[in-house]
Amino acid sequence: MIYLDFAATSPVHPEVWETMTPYALANFGNPASQHELGQSAKIALEQARTTLLHLLESMQETHQLLFTSGGTEANNLALQGVVRNWWKEHPEAKKPPHLVISAIEHAAVFEVAQWLAAQHCIDLTVLYPHPENEGLITPEQVVEALTPETILCSIMHANNETGVLQPIEAMVKAVKAHLPSCLFHCDMVQTIGKMPINLTQLPVDFATASGHKFQAPKGCGFLVCSPAGFEALAPITYGGGQEFGLRPGTVSVANAVGLASALTLKHKTLSENPLHLSRLTTWLIEQLQTTFGAMGEINTPLNPEHRLAGIVNVSFASHLGEKLVLKLDLRGICVSSGSACHAGLAVEPSKVLLAMGKQKSIAESSIRVSMGASTTQAELHTLMEALQAIIQVKDKS
Ligand SMILES: Cc1ncc(COP(=O)(O)O)c(C=O)c1O
Asked: I need a surface site. Which of 46, 188, 282, 342 has the fewest CB within 10 A?
């Protein structure tokens, strides 16, 4: 089997599993317990928190990290938590606060914002990329959308379908210069663990990460908060006082240790072989272009600076994406069509591609090839052969 669906999920790294096991078996204590077993679990939990903050080069003395059940929960906590806290502080307000998101956000941001707007808890502005901009939102667009009531902008780092990489650093700086009180959340689920992230350079107030995208287990992730972000957050679930009272529930120490170990390993791999994925991505895009020409539309930015290495999204207008995925599966190759979270549901065109201004025929025929550190050029060769056989292009040579 050739696995080219790393943006959907990745296997737990054996070394990560090994570091986690003691915290599931012998050292199983509850970090909230006062006895020795609990306290040693608490030490491991806090070490994991410190390691993660350190790897992300956040200001460890000031930033906080909340462990969650994954990217979806971390995004919900950031958006709903800020809005709840605002209403707690402004119970008499006649006008709701204002939020800005992009039209290509993952459902774990997009649907939350839509729901909050439907409940009249917020006014919402949704930004669309200009059609000629390969999915990029500009800092100017974000600034233009701000109103004196804007309390939060939520723009993702890399899009999960196309890999387009937003200019977050310039956006945050522009937003803060224009409206210093406005907070900035960034869904970094597709970038944390896949490229070096320096939260001092990318001074967002909230950053979301998900373990299963970088070889930690599924069902764990975290939200990093700046001091201003941490102050502006209310819990969205109620229970015990864990995670500073902001995310109640017994924390899985094994998962926290796994997250720290997986991110440590990823940083090592990234520093040892930083160009591996960008080379493969460029090679695959070039192969698709020369082999299929106008029959294959590349939906991933062609400028390497505007994309996350490792994701290539292509549409063959003559083939529905879902069908192409199944045909490749029959040949032992795993890719996805559109967002994996929607796979299995009725075929509908990719909202992300439509929002980018692509035609319906392109938006319903896209497949996403996503690579990991273990991906080889030979695997991509096999993919190209399979695509040629399915799309039935005559070899030009
Ligand atoms: C950009 C993005 N955000 C959020 C999520 C949700 O993360 P999780 O699966 O950990 O809930 C995903 C998952 O595919 C994603 O790609």
From this structure: 46
Domain ranges of the chain: 2-8+274-391, 14-268
CATH number of 2-8+274-391: 3.90.1150.10
- pLDDT greater than 80 at residue 345: no
Mean pLDDT of 302-327: 96
Closest CA to ligand 1's atom 7? 71
Is there a shared CATH topology between the 2-8+274-391 domain and the 14-268 domain? no
Residue 177 is inside which H or E element, if any?
Answer: helix 168-178
107 CB less than 6 Å from ligand 1? no
d(CA 351, CA 110): 11
Closest C-alpha to ligand 1, atom 14: 8
Residue 155 has pLDDT above 90, yes or no: yes
Give distance in angstroms: CA of 278 to centre of ligand 1. 22
Residue 171's contacts (CB-CB under 8 Å, 6 or more residues apart) are 137, 139, 142, 153, 155, 184
Say if ligand 1 is within 6 A of residue 106 CB.
Answer: yes
The answer to whether residues 239 and 248 touch, using CB atoms and an 8 Å cutoff, is yes
Q: Of all atoms in ligand 1, which is nearest to the CA of residue 341?
A: 14
Architecture of domain 14-268: 3-Layer(aba) Sandwich (3.40)
In ligand 1, which atom is closest to the CA atom of 105?
1
